[in-house]
Specification:
The protein is an alpha+beta fold. It has helices at residues 53-80, 82-93, 106-111, 115-118, 123-146; strands at residues 7-13, 16-26, 29-32. Strands 1-2-3 form a 3-stranded antiparallel sheet. Bound molecules: zinc ion.
C-alpha cells in the first residue's frame, strides 16, 4: 500500500529523465500503464543467465532488488506530489487523470480531468490546483518538443 489516490500518473524515469513512465494506482497499488508496458531496468534475458543454479539465483535476486529499489523511487516521487503526477499524465496523454479516458474538449484538456470526474469539485478549486499543474506540465512538454 502506497497511500497514492486511485488514478493515473506520469513521472520521468528516475534513472533517465528523458523517458516518461506511466502508472495506474488502484486501491493503493501502483501498476504499469498500459498493463503490458515496461519501464525501468531492462528485464533479464534467459540467454544471459549463469549456468549453475546458485549463481543464477543470485543473479535474479540482484536484478529483483534493483527493480524494487527503482520502483520504490518512482512511487515515492508520485506519493510526494500526486497532483503533479496526475497533471503530467494528462498533459502527456491528454487523458483524464482520474479515469484515464481520452479528453476531447479544450476545457477538459486544460484541467486534465474530464467533465464527469470533475463533477462535484468547485471551479475555484480546479482553477487553483489542477490548472497550474497541467499548465506547468504542458509548458515543460512544449520546451522539450522545441529543444
Ligand atoms: Zn475521468
Amino acid at each position: 500500500m502506497t497511500g497514492i489516490p486511485d488514478g493515473y500518473y506520469a513521472t520521468p524515469d528516475p534513472d533517465n529523465a528523458d523517458t516518461m513512465t506511466y502508472w495506474r494506482a488502484r486501491t493503493g497499488h501502483v501498476e504499469r500503464w498500459p498493463a503490458k508496458a515496461w519501464y525501468g531496468p531492462a528485464r533479464l534475458l534467459k540467454r544471459d543467465a549463469p549456468a549453475d543454479r546458485d549463481s543464477k539465483v543470485t543473479w535474479m535476486r540482484a536484478w529483483s532488488d534493483q527493480y524494487r529499489a527503482w520502483l520504490q523511487r518512482v512511487t515515492d516521487t508520485i506519493a510526494a506530489d500526486p497532483q503533479t503526477g496526475r497533471a503530467t499524465f494528462a498533459a502527456f496523454t491528454v487523458r483524464c487523470c482520474d479515469c484515464g479516458r481520452a479528453l476531447t474538449d479544450t476545457k477538459s484538456k486544460t484541467l486534465g480531468i474530464g467533465p464527469e470526474c470533475r463533477r462535484g469539485y468547485d471551479e475555484a478549486f480546479l482553477a487553483s490546483t489542477l490548472t497550474p499543474a497541467v499548465a506547468k506540465a504542458h509548458a515543460a512538454q512544449a520546451r522539450k518538443a522545441t529543444s
